[in-house]
Design a protein that fits this description.
Layout (H helix, E strand, L loop, with lengths): L1 H5 L15 H8 L5 E2 L11 H13 L9 H15 L8 E4 L2 H12 L5 E4 L6 H8 L3 E4 L3 E3 L2 E3 L2 H9 L3 E7 L11 H13 L3 E5 L15 H5 L6 E6 L1 H4 L7 E4 L3 H13 L7 H13 L1 H25 L4 E3 L6 E5 L7 H11 L2 E2 L1 E2 L10 E5 L4 H16 L1
């Protein structure tokens, strides 16, 4: 099994991949000569069934406008039922080009300019940009690092949710970049606060399938069931199966009013256009992807263990905040760098490793960095050794 995920195909032209793009690497790290472990993308070859399905579509020779019929929706529904015991109804599903597209559309459609939208930093940096991009106000409910693990600040969340202008929250579940898989008890507390204050729940569950063996993903739609329908869930097969360049994202809500509003937005702005390969990809991975994904998760979990052991043995100054899910790892560099300038000098110029500075996920990410580990383990190990050498020279 591991050999498949360890394989790095050098013969592939990656020059157009965002992760490997010279322009992106130069703009972010000041050099193209860095190990590209920054963007949340996968460098694993996809499951064989998907390659076979893509070849079949390519040979077809016809690529017209196509509908996302029940034949596409049913595998998605079946996946969530079997994988997570989450019940989705077909008439609650919509599709857009990306999770961020769906989030921006929901915020713009269902809130007003100047309204407050809660996010929980350190968190995916694009949330702040899309909130401000539609003229809303970012409201920070900062996570707390307690004994090496992050927790929600529920007292602060209550205060922020109770503010008159606060209208929605973006919940990142599992959480990017810290790798937390929120427990049922934590999610119930969040739901209780948001429902009591009439705060719309926007739950980004794109990493829901990337959960390690000691944790269990709980869908927020299940928490809300019977309590409130003021919830919209956003997801995609892109992270789970390493295909963000192929598939769309999906939106699910039990709220008929929200669905009609979002459906109207999608139609007005043409946000739901499909492509032949993406449709077949979604159907294929959700029908046949269970065993392949299990192997991928096992490999990723071993990669986390490898990183933890390496740091403890060779680089104890750098601490791993152990992830419970996602394929990001959150590294604490506070003992080896006192500022962003020092950290970027260490990582980008000395170690030649391109990973995301924690300040991107601000306001409480300073001194940390996010590394994408969805790559062959030899590649990750090389990067660790380069960081070790840079710290100890």
């Amino acid at each position: 099994m591991s050999a498949k995920f360890d394989k790095y195909k050098k013969e592939i032209d990656r020059s157009t991949f965002i992760r490997y793009s010279d322009s992106y690497l130069n703009s972010l790290f000041g050099s193209t000569k860095v190990a590209p472990l920054w963007v949340a993308d996968s460098d694993f070859i996809v499951m064989p069934e998907l390659v076979k399905a893509m070849k079949k579509v390519a040979k077809r020779g016809l690529y017209p406008y196509e509908l996302k019929t029940p034949a596409i929706k049913q595998p998605l529904i079946d996946w969530f039922t079997k994988r997570h015991k989450i019940k989705l109804k077909m008439d609650g599903l919509l599709f857009t080009s990306s999770v961020l597209t769906g989030l921006a559309a929901a915020i713009d459609e269902l809130t007003s300019e100047g309204d407050g939208i809660i996010i929980q930093p350190p968190v995916y940096n694009a949330f702040k940009g899309l909130i401000e991009g539609v003229e809303r106000k970012v409201v920070f409910n900062q996570l707390k690092l307690v004994d090496g693990a992050y927790e929600m600040d529920f007292d602060d969340l209550k205060k922020k949710a109770a503010e008159k202008k606060t209208k929605a929250i973006i919940l990142c579940s599992p959480h990017n970049p810290i790798g937390r898989v929120w427990t049922r008890k934590e999610l119930e507390k969040v739901a209780e606060i948001c429902v009591a204050n009439n705060v719309l729940m926007l739950t980004d569950e794109i990493h829901c399938d990337i959960v390690f063996s000691k944790s269990k993903f709980v869908g927020m739609t299940e928490i809300y069931s019977g309590k409130s329908d003021q919830i919209i869930m956003f997801g995609s097969a892109g992270k789970s199966f390493g295909i963000p360049g192929l598939v769309d994202s999906f939106i699910y809500t039990p709220n008929e009013e929200y669905k009609k509003a979002l459906q109207s937005r999608i139609m007005r702005f043409h946000l739901g256009k499909s492509n032949s390969f993406g449709i077949v990809a979604m159907k294929t991975v959700y029908k046949h992807g269970h065993k392949w994904l299990d192997k991928k998760l096992s490999y990723l979990e071993k990669t986390v263990l490898m990183i933890d052991e390496f740091l403890k043995k060779h680089l104890p100054e750098v601490k791993l905040i152990k992830p419970e899910g996602t394929y990001q790892v959150w590294l604490d560099f506070n003992e080896v760098a006192k500022s962003d300038e020092e950290l970027s000098e260490l990582l980008f110029k000395k170690a030649k490793v391109g990973i995301g500075l924690g300040s991107m996920y601000s306001p409480n990410g300073e001194g940390f960095a996010r590394m994408n580990i969805a790559s062959p383990q030899p590649m990750i190990m090389d990067a660790l050794k380069q960081i070790e050498k840079a710290v100890h020279v």
